[in-house]
Specification:
- The protein is an alpha/beta fold.
- 19% of the residues lie in helices and 32% in strands.
- It contains 11 helices and 27 strands.
- It has helices at 4-19, 76-86, 120-129, 145-156, 173-176, 186-190, 200-210, 217-220, 246-256, 293-306, 395-398; strands spanning 35-42, 48-55, 62-69, 91-96, 134-143, 161-167, 179-180, 183-184, 235-242, 262-270, 279-280, 283-284, 318-322, 335-339, 347-354, 358-360, 370-375, 382-383, 404-407, 415-429, 435-443, 449-458, 477-490, 495-501, 505-506, 529-534, 542-548.
- The longest helix is centred in the first third of the chain and has 16 residues, at 4-19.
């Protein structure tokens, strides 16, 4: 590939000449001296990607930092934050995926960023490194889609990539994107046609996913976790407790750690970038929960891209916020801790589901016992929105007809949970397939049930995502999966609660419960069913919780 870099350099002048013919001018906006340019960056197959470049005032060479997205880059907030970063002494490039927005080519999601014939992230990085305003040192940044893109980029190892800064990132698109716990999300991703230059590209991609319901070679080609040994650049990674994708942030840190300097920050926030403040959902944490994301990112880039001796590389490998109750005087928690690795030591403790909606640390003794509810996919229980509603009161969901809860007695002393929380359920169903959504909440003395985490599992994947094993109606089956990561101290008087349901739309699109093939129109045929959560001596259902003494 070394011979390819000069070709990119030769194409650059043509690219700049043609750029402004490909886009209408953006609305005027005060960028305080920063120059904004639209360019079309050439890829190895001749396709050009749309990018907005922000250059500091004056003439010179600067390090370059860039983000890759399929979403629009022309909003005033994106333009202003890009200019703000440019004023810190960086050329900032905001680049759209192939086939999205104004970028040429066929939209294929993240696949063109990977390690196959097309390496759009690699080519973008190397093009930026060879421009006349570039020092040749390049960093990348971004959250969510911009985090996933950085893991793909790191695997391809472009020579000029020096460091990365990821926020709420992902590793496997089967687990953290197109699927969650095996649940398909066609309605969510059907809407992605609005990102495409040609909306038909998105429909074709959805049809392609339909052909690969299991974790197979197709999905392994989009699993960065299989290639950690190739990721050899320093990276600072932020994960948010109230975000199901915190699993990707943690796994990325763990997998990359042997190969280059890695630092991990875990805090009490929702999914997203530039939103790491103290107001989260229904809660207001102390001011120490705020993370100065832009300022710290600049420090990270200053060290790795400019050689500034600011000591950022010597800071703790892991910093995590131990959440506590808010609004309660002298409540334990709401403090930062440091560690050399993740997770810290903890004792796995079982909290068992019992009759009467009770959660206890003792196993059930009943010979036969279970809690049942009905499920009609055409009349699902409701979880509004498309984003995980963390740090919000869940009572509106908990009180719906086909939702069941179990809670401990009020705690007599504080309980710290730090690490991965898992569910182990024994279930019976009258249907060959369904979904189980487990939610974990901190119930305050005033009755508020504040959501800490949730995660679903499609029953047909209980023995692994590489195959489907349908339920035998009426027969007990065991399901075990990780619900999420957290660090929280439940205060005295609070209760730990587990909530269970099989639907929660539109956040989780329903299972038709027929056991049939999963495809974009699979809700045309549905089956109602009754599901039973067993809590008996031979089939104890439980929550596995990491307790720190």
């Amino acid at each position: 590939m070394k011979s390819y870099v000069p070709i990119l350099a030769l194409l650059c002048s043509l690219c700049f000449d043609r750029a402004h013919a490909d886009s209408a001018p953006l609305p005027p906006i005060d960028l305080q001296g920063v120059r904004e340019q639209h360019v079309m960056i050439p890829m190895r197959d001749g396709v050009r990607l749309s990018a907005y470049v922000y250059l500091p005032e004056g003439e010179g060479k600067w390090p370059v930092v860039f983000e890759q997205r399929y979403a629009s880059l022309t909003g005033s907030g994106t333009r202003k934050s890009s200019a703000d970063l440019a004023r810190r002494g960086y050329v900032v490039a905001m680049v759209n995926f192939r086939g999205s927005q104004q970028s040429e080519g066929t939209y294929v999601g993240y696949r063109a960023l990977a390690w196959g014939e097309l390496k759009d992230g690699y080519d973008t990085c190397e093009w930026l490194a060879t421009q006349p305003w570039s020092t040749g040192k390049v960093g990348s940044f971004g959250s969510s889609q911009g985090g996933f893109a950085q893991n793909f980029l790191a695997v391809t190892r472009p020579p000029h990539l020096i460091c990365q800064y990821m926020v709420d990132t992902g590793v496997s698109l089967f687990q953290e994107g197109y699927r969650i716990g095996g649940i398909t999300r066609p309605l969510r991703f059907e809407a992605f046609k609005s990102n495409c230059r040609n909306p038909d590209d998105n429909a074709a991609l959805l049809r392609e996913w339909d052909q690969h319901p299991n974790y197979d070679a197709y999905w392994r080609a989009e699993d960065c976790g299989l290639h950690f040994d190739q990721m050899n650049v320093p990276c600072f990674t932020i994960g948010s407790w109230y975000d199901f994708m915190v699993q990707g942030s943690i796994l990325s840190f763990q997998g990359r750690k042997p190969n280059a300097t890695q630092q991990l920050l875990l805090g009490p926030w929702l999914h997203g970038r530039l939103n790491k403040g103290s107001k989260v959902g229904d809660l207001v944490y102390p001011n120490n929960a705020t993370w100065p994301e832009l300022e710290h990112m600049v420090r990270w880039f200053d060290h790795w891209l400019k050689g500034v001796d600011n000591g950022v590389e010597k800071e703790p490998a892991v910093r995590y916020y131990v959440m506590g109750a808010v609004g309660e005087t002298n409540a334990p928690g709401n403090v930062w801790r440091e560690a050399s690795d993740w997770p810290p030591a903890a004792t796995e403790t079982s909290f068992y589901l019992h009759e009467g909606a009770v959660l206890k640390d003792t196993s059930p003794a009943s010979a036969t016992s279970g809690t049942s509810y009905d499920c009609d996919p055409l009349h699902p229980m409701e979880i509004p929105g498309r984003s995980f509603p963390g740090a919000k009161d869940t009572r509106a969901f908990d009180q719906q007809k086909e939702v069941r809860t179990w809670a401990t007695e009020p705690l007599t002393k504080p309980l710290e949970i730090t690490g991965a929380v898992q569910a182990e359920l024994w279930v019976k169903s009258t249907a060959p397939d369904t979904d189980f959504i487990v939610r974990v909440s901190d119930v305050y003395p005033d009755g508020r049930s504040i959501l800490i985490m949730d995660y679903p599992l499609r029953a047909r994947y209980r023995e692994g995502f590489d195959k489907q094993v349908l339920l035998i109606p009426g027969q007990p089956a065991q399901l075990k999966w990780r619900i999420g990561w957290t660090s929280i101290i439940l205060n005295s008087g609070h209760r730990l609660q587990v909530t269970l349901s099989s639907t929660g739309a539109p956040l989780y699109e329903p299972n038709n419960q027929t056991g049939g093939k999963m495809h974009t129109e699979w809700m045309q045929e549905t089956q109602t069913a009754t599901h039973t959560i067993l809590h008996e001596k031979e089939h104890p259902s439980r929550l596995l919780v990491p307790i720190v003494k």
